[in-house]
Amino acid sequence: MRIAIFGGTFNPPHLGHENCIKSVQSALELDKLIVMPDKLPPHKQAENLATESDRLNMCRLAFESESCECSDWELKGEGRSYTVITLRHFREIYPSDKLYFIMGSDMLLSFDKWYCYEEILRLSALVCVSRSDEDTERIKPCAERLNSIGGDIEIAHTEPLDISSTQIRSLVAQRKFTKLSCYLNENVVKYIEENRLYL
Ligand code: ATP
Question: Could you tell which of 165, 171, 197, 198 is best to mutate to test the pocket of ligand 1, judged by most ligand atoms within 8 Å of the CB?
Answer without folding.
Answer: 165
